[in-house]
Amino acid sequence: METLKNIKKLPDEDLVKAIVKNNDTLLFEVLYDRYAMLVYNKCLGFAKDTDEAKDLAQDVFLKLFVKLASFKAKSKFSTWLYAFTYNHCVNYVTRNTAKKFQKKAVDYKDIENLSEDEDDNSLLSMKVDKLKVALEKISPDEKMILLLKYQDQLSIKDLESVLAIGESAVKMRIKRAKDKLITVYNNLK
Q1: CA distance linking residue 123 with residue 119, whole number of Å
Q2: Residue 138 gets which letter from DSSP?
Q3: Using the 8-state DSSP alphabet, how is residue 185 labeled?
Q4: pLDDT of residue 40
Q5: DSSP label at 149?
Q6: Which of 19, 66, 101, 124 is the most buried (most CB within 10 A)?
């Protein structure tokens, strides 16, 4: 058996293979230690408070242990975990609000002349406290795509993988979420 020091040096993908092969909870602890804060912070974006975020994060890791064998290494583990966490949180929010999370159709005419950072200056000039209030007033999926893009700095390519949609759909969702956030922000008193 490898030493703990060597195990901690294993790349994520190799660690996942070892966990799945041996159904090893001790190895899973190493993976948990690597990603606990990241998952918690993602959950906090959906939760109303820190206790709810902790519960959500714990649920993610319990579900992750069971579903780890479904990781096929088509993307980096961290990207797959983002998607896993995101989907769990969206399901939680929609279950609690009795809404269905729907993929919106994209009209390709809408994305002609769309630049990725078109409204970024508007977002960057917002006051933090007022921005937090505005973020709470938009839908969870709009909030999450903005947080993934601007707080976590995921690329369009990473967002395609996380959301399982195409590049143009990612760009359109970002644009719509930014437009909505700016409108809500500007209407706050």
Answers
A1: 7
A2: S
A3: H
A4: 94
A5: I
A6: 19
Structure-token pair, residue 108? 């390709």
Q: Which whole number is the average pLDDT over 42-60?
A: 89
Does residue 120 carry a pLDDT above 80?
Answer: no
Structure tokens at 48: 């109303």
Sequence-separated (6 or more) residues with CB below 8 Å from residue 36: 57, 61
Angstrom distance (rounded) from CA 89 to CA 39: 10
DSSP string, 2-28: --HHHHHHS-HHHHHHHHHHHT-HHHH
Domains and CATH numbers, the chain: 9-97 (1.10.1740.10), 108-187 (1.20.140.160)
* Full DSSP string of 56-112: HHHHHHHHHHHHGGG--SSS-HHHHHHHHHHHHHHHHHHHHHT----PPP--GGGGT
Q: Which residues contact 76 (CB under 8 A, 6 or more apart)?
A: 12, 13
The answer to whether residues 33 and 135 touch, using CB atoms and an 8 Å cutoff, is no
> What is the dihedral sign for C-alpha 77, 78, 79, 83?
positive
- pLDDT at residue 125, as a whole number: 59
- pLDDT, position 126: 60
